[in-house]
């Protein structure tokens, strides 16, 4: 988004500068070479004035679009509370309680990434901090929240659901992991 904002600012400035230049000189530098008799095809003063007005209108339009894009970019940058709510929603999806079978931290890891990407809508970045910890930040790498996922496997030889069971528990804390 930042690259798009910079691009629009550069285009607005270039368009404004072109509007400030002598329009007749611009004709001779850019279009006159196309004609066998360029003097006969030279635009009228009204056409040159209209061209200047169009360039200024384009510059203003690009500048207004840049301001709107900056506002949109600012509004989609998540605060700490928004990152924390994404972490809590992802934690509730991953937190499965007691399950039959052997649980793996690898399976929990992919579930965490999937849940954060679904809940965050592309506005939250996630990285593994090791030992079942995941650091979530906004798109700018700010406002960190730590999501901890623990997988516990239990052996129960007398159980009806099989000898193994596992549970996945989660916790969310503010700050880096």
Description:
The chain has five helices and five strands, in the order ααααβαββββ. It is an alpha+beta fold and 177 residues long. The protein folds into two domains: 2-75; 80-174, no CATH class. It has a five-stranded antiparallel sheet with strand order 1-5-4-3-2, with helices on one face. Helix 4 packs across helix 5 (105-120). The protein is rod-shaped, with a radius of gyration of 30 Å. The two termini are 28 Å apart.
Strand content: 15-25%
Query: Which sequence of SSEs, written as H and E, runs from N to C?
Result: HHHHEHEEEE
3D shape: rod-shaped
Q: What is the radius of gyration computed over CA atoms, rounded to a whole number of angstroms?
A: 30 Å
Mean pLDDT: 86
Largest sheet: 5 strands, antiparallel
Please identify the structural class as seen in this structure: alpha+beta
Q: Order of strands across the biggest sheet?
A: 1-5-4-3-2
Total strands: 5
Number of domains: 2
Helix content: 40-55%
Given the structure, what is the number of helices? 5
Query: Kindly, what is the distance between the CA atoms of the first and last residues, rounded to a whole number of angstroms?
Result: 28 Å
In short:
By secondary structure, this protein is an alpha+beta fold.
